[in-house]
Amino acid sequence: MYRFISETTEQSIFVPRHGSKGYQLKENIKFHLYINTAPCGDARLVFGQRLLTMSCSDKIARWNVVGVQGALLSHFVEPIYLESIVLGSLFHPSHMYRAVCGRIETTIQGLPPPYRLNKPLMSLITSPEVRQPGKAPNYSVNWTTGQEGPEIINSVTGKDDRGVASRLSKQGLFRRFLNLVGRISSITGITFGTCPRQYSDAKEAVQDYKMAKEQLVLAFHKAELGTWLKKPIEQDQFELDDSMLNNHQ
To answer: What InterPro entries does its record include (predicted)?
Structure first.
């Protein structure tokens, strides 16, 4: 999504917002999520064990409140919500609905516009896949349009076979964010000089996103779903120096 913002109007999936700073999706652009099986956590009919982190079901529920764009892109764009979720197997309509939005629909409140509780369409593919449970691979693959090829990452270390951090790491995304800030300042009103240089500060600076996330955590608490587990704050307290910018588009 970072790349699309910097393209021409014809190529971009975004258009400038009317009457305010930033961007919004073009009307004909929709985001759809396909998962080969029901996400772990509340969407599953049967639980194997208690999780020590927030489950996939919890994270999708979060997307349905704060959007899939994350905190950094919220500096530039309106929240982006999923139009639909399609499962390859283990789809149970009532369980899936409850997991991704239903369990907080009576407790979520106080969301700053345009944030809202999104309720995506949900379905099973026409020909369900035969589920073959097994140990997950120790690598992940990512690719985006415009890249020469896919990136293969060790899912334990977050690095490739050369020991280089993934382009989807927090450091990689923050670098692209800072490189983008100055290039679209006329639309967003954010300049490189005024933008926080620490990753955690840049995320905290998006007040509406921060408030929406706080209301999500509160909604989970009111629904007696437990406390939203947070990762150590230290992992977000890093900065990038000038040598790591500009030439790393």
So the answer is: A_deamin
Interior/surface letters 148-161, b for 16+ CB within 10 angstroms, e for the rest: eeebebeeeeeeee
Q: What is the pLDDT along the chain (249 residues), one digit of tens a residue?
A: 445 444 566 788 999 888 778 899 999 999 999 998 889 888 876 557 555 678 999 999 999 999 999 999 999 999 999 999 999 888 889 999 999 999 999 999 999 999 999 999 999 876 555 656 667 789 999 998 888 899 999 988 999 999 999 999 999 999 999 888 878 887 777 777 788 889 999 999 999 999 999 999 999 999 999 888 888 889 999 998 766 676 444
Nearest to 87 by CA among 77, 73, 97, 78: 97
Contacts of 6 (CB under 8 A, 6+ apart): 180, 183, 184
Give the up-direction half-sphere exposure of residue 119: CA atoms within 13 A in the CB hemisphere.
9
CB 44 within 8 A of CB 38: yes
The model's pTM is 0.86
